């Protein structure tokens, strides 16, 4: 979503209470048909993804971007592998936003289905997937995880996405135009990723001349935000940074309205990056969102993404997730082609020398990370318009939803 950004380091794994056989059966039932193909096959090259398509988070837009990139490559006869053109197939498993299911599905894709590489999911799942890729020694290309949040690994995970720091700096520069008292309330999930986000945004806020008067961490699934709102009210915080799962943000926005807490500017990290934000109606108007793509940013492949998916996904955030998936898959396909091999080790080596233009901008990895551009958008009546950087964007509007 944008996609999602988000933008959470290691959440505890969900308890593994389901038998392995049941998980394997679940994997099989969610698989898209594929003939397979690995390093020694003359058939299609098979790559895989365990992605959240149902449950708390659904990412069909990213999957659609993956499939668009493969369709484009296959329309040209496939990619060059071992001296011959081979088609590429993607095996998709829905992990239902469940970490234990995702971990088992990744293993199934590599060990049973013999995929030669993996594409990511989103957010915390991408962090958890890194350890699997390292253990199985298979390359994993991901986005939807701010580069600061990718833990150090063994070199098999490649993250091309935006930076939390870029988003924070852009937000504080934008907030300077809102005429606030520069007092900030930061609210995050109480996991390690939330803690890291709060620390980074606090440090950059202070460096930009803001006073972070309160930092609150709440468990996922919180329904009562009265203490958080009281802190914002009593400390007169006119700047709000919320980094939480969508449902929690929705609940807090409704309670802020009911309790008459009216910051002058607010951003929703992760939560406002989901299509569900529009379900708040006018209440969500004026909320800012960190974005990896906008239609006005002049990024490559924008025309194709818009032409093929704007009728299905009229919202800029959804189209940005399609562009994200297209970029990730393009990076992987380019590496396989340059490797000239479907061997995971050769593909991983080729990824290290990636230097290309993608739907999210230029990608060149340093330490398995490549920072892509960041934009800020603003919700208004179910749509998002770019407001930062000013080039290609529009003027900042008041935070009318909470006014």
Commentary on this structure:
The protein contains eleven helices and 17 strands. It has 403 residues and is α/β, with parallel strands linked by helices. It has two domains: 20-162 and 301-371, Rossmann fold (3-Layer(aba) Sandwich), CATH 3.40.50.2300; 165-291 and 375-402, Rossmann fold, CATH 3.40.50.2300. The strands form five sheets. A six-stranded parallel beta sheet has the order 4-1-5-6-7-15, with helices on both faces. A four-stranded parallel beta sheet has the order 9-8-10-11, with helices on both faces. Strands 12-16-17 form a three-stranded antiparallel beta sheet, sandwiched between helices. Strand 2 and strand 3 (84-86) form a beta hairpin.
Features:
disordered N terminus; 4-stranded parallel sheet; 17 strands; Rossmann fold; 403 residues; alpha/beta; 21% strand
Show the helix and strand layout:
Elements: H1 20-30, E1 45-51, H2 60-75, E2 79-81, E3 84-86, E4 88-94, H3 99-112, E5 118-119, H4 123-136, E6 140-142, E7 157-161, H5 164-175, E8 183-189, H6 192-207, E9 211-218, H7 226-234, E10 239-244, H8 246-258, E11 265-270, E12 288-291, H9 302-309, H10 316-339, H11 344-352, E13 355-358, E14 361-364, E15 369-371, E16 375-380, E17 383-388
Instruction: Describe the global form.
Output: elongated
> Which ranges are low-confidence, i.e. pLDDT below 50, for 5 or more consecutive residues?
1-36
Number of strands: 17
Per the CATH scheme, the topology name of the largest domain is Rossmann fold
Indicate the CATH class of the largest domain.
Alpha Beta
- Compute the number of structural domains: 2
Calculate the mean pLDDT score and round it.
Answer: 89
Number of helices: 11
Largest sheet: 6 strands, parallel
CATH level 4 superfamily of the largest domain: Response regulator
State the end-to-end CA separation: 27 Å
What is the alpha-carbon Rg in Å?
A: 21 Å
Helix-strand string: HEHEEEHEHEEHEHEHEHEEHHHEEEEE
Structural class: alpha/beta
Strand order of the largest sheet: 4-1-5-6-7-15
**CATH-defined architecture of the largest domain:** 3-Layer(aba) Sandwich
Helix content: 25-40%
Proportion of residues in β-strands = 15-25%
């Amino acid at each position: 979503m944008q996609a999602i950004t988000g933008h959470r380091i290691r959440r505890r794994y969900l308890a593994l209470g389901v038998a392995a056989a049941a998980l394997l059966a679940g994997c099989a039932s969610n698989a898209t048909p594929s003939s397979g193909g690995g390093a020694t096959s003359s058939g299609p090259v098979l790559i895989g993804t365990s992605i959240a398509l149902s449950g708390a988070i659904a990412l069909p837009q990213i999957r659609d971007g993956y499939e668009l990139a493969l369709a484009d490559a296959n329309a040209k006869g496939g990619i060059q592998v071992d001296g011959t053109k081979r088609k590429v197939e993607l095996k998709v498993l829905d992990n239902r936003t469940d970490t234990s299911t995702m971990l088992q599905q990744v293993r199934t894709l590599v060990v049973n289905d013999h995929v030669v590489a993996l594409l990511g999911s989103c957010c915390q799942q991408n962090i958890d997937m890194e350890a699997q890729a390292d253990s199985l020694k298979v390359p994993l290309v991901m986005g939807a995880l701010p580069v600061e949040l990718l833990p150090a690994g063994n070199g098999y995970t490649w993250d091309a996405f935006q930076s939390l720091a870029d988003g924070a700096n852009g937000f504080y520069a934008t907030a300077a135009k809102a005429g606030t008292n520069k007092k900030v309330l930061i609210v995050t999930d109480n996991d390690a990723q939330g803690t890291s986000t709060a620390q980074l945004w606090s440090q950059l806020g202070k460096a930009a001349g803001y006073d972070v008067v309160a930092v609150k961490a709440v468990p996922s699934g919180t329904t009562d935000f009265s203490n958080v709102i009281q802190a914002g009210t009593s400390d007169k915080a006119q700047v709000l940074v919320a980094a939480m799962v969508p449902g929690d943000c929705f609940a807090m926005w409704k309670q802020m309205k009911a309790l008459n807490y009216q910051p002058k500017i607010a951003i929703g990290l992760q939560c406002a990056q989901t299509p569900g934000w529009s379900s708040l109606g006018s209440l969500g108007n004026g909320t800012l969102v960190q974005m990896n793509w906008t239609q006005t940013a002049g990024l490559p492949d924008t025309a194709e993404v818009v032409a093929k998916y704007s009728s299905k996904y009229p919202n800029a955030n959804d189209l940005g997730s399609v562009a994200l998936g297209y970029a990730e898959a393009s990076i992987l396909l380019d590496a396989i082609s340059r490797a000239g091999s479907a061997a995971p080790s050769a593909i991983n080596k080729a990824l290290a020398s990636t230097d290309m233009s993608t739907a999210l901008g230029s990608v060149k990895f340093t330490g398995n990370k490549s920072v892509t551009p960041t934009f800020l958008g603003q919700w208004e009546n179910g749509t998002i318009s770019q407001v930062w950087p000013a080039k290609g964007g529009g003027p900042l509007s008041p935070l009318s939803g909470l006014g």
